[in-house]
Amino acid sequence: MTTTNELKQLVKEKYGEIASQSKEQNETSCCGIGCGCATIDEALMAENYSKLAGYVADADLGLGCGLPTEYAHIKAGDVVVDLGSGAGNDAFIARAVTGATGKVIGVDMTEKMIEKARLNAEKMGFNNVEFRHGDIEQLPLSANVADVVVSNCVMNLVPNKQKAFTETFRVLKPGGHFSISDIVLVGELPEGLRKSAEMYAGCISGAIQKDEYLDVIKAAGFTHVEVQKNKKITLPHEILSTYLNEQELAQVQAGSLGIFSITVYGEKPLAPKPASAAAKAACCGEGSSCC
User: What pLDDT does 65 receive?
Assistant: First the structure.
């Protein structure tokens, strides 16, 4: 049985390989990992960033499954944290919105991605974007530092999603929020696909059920949780047939099994203000212990 540490190491190794590839290479391999799959359309998972303010072509490796920054309600002056920041694509888009008075912090566990992101930031002269090496399950950030957290197709790769969202909650300021794009499932994923290490590292088999995903977010303490975008992913027959038998393929085609890219939003509640002594007295009477 593959352990959590082994899964993390696998993902780290594969994304280390991806860091040295071009966007074009990533788009013509199995979700960027070169596992010998048939060529797939870049629109299958990734969204087109090229027309967005702040776009840096060298930072776009074609690995995302949404545009979380477009839904994140980022404002000028915000502190934005990008989880699984890769070569810096979403971080640089966020920087264009936060402006000179804001700050963007990217976190990634792959050293080669951090190196590439830092090089991109240096080339662009961005002095309010930084990239930190770290694990999403134990973020290298203090509590209550971020106005907004974004992430793009990364949480599905994290073994302990509850820890990841608990950490997201911790680093957000009270009243802050997140917008995260990710892959989720509707229906039972066939075992052959779920257990594939290559698909886990690059595509979908680290994903969990959509309802479970939303429950994990709520259990971390977030409120006003909503799905901002819901897009069905239709994998080519050549990829699915590598992992699925005929019966399982029929179930996918019939729609009883669904793979979706979602962008989900959630807020960290404002800390409740402590009641004053006068308010307590008015509520319960002087000396009462009921409040």
Answer: 87
Q: Which two tokens stand for residue 195?
A: 């257990």
Tell me the residue type at 94: A
The C-alpha angle 152, 43, 137, rounded to 5 degrees, equals 15
List, for residues 130-185, the tens digit of each pLDDT value: 999 999 999 999 999 999 999 999 998 898 999 999 999 999 999 999 999 998 98
pLDDT of residue 42: 39
As a residue count, the chain comes to 291
**What sections of the chain are H helices per DSSP?**
4-19, 23-27, 68-71, 89-98, 111-124, 161-171, 191-194, 197-202, 210-219, 237-243, 246-254, 277-284
What does the alpha-carbon distance between residue 61 and residue 256 come to, in Å, rounded to a whole number?
32
- How would you write 219-247 as a 3-class SS string? HCCCEEEEEEEEEECCCCHHHHHHHCCHH
At 96, the amino acid letter reads: A
**27 or 208, which is more confident?**
208
Both tokens assigned to 82: 């990008």
- Cα gap 157→108, rounded to integer Å: 12
| Domains recognised in the chain with CATH numbers | 4-269 (3.40.50.150)
Q: Contact 145/49 with Cβ under 8 angstroms?
A: no
**DSSP secondary structure letters along 144-186:** T-EEEEEEES-GGG-S-HHHHHHHHHHHEEEEEEEEEEEEEEE
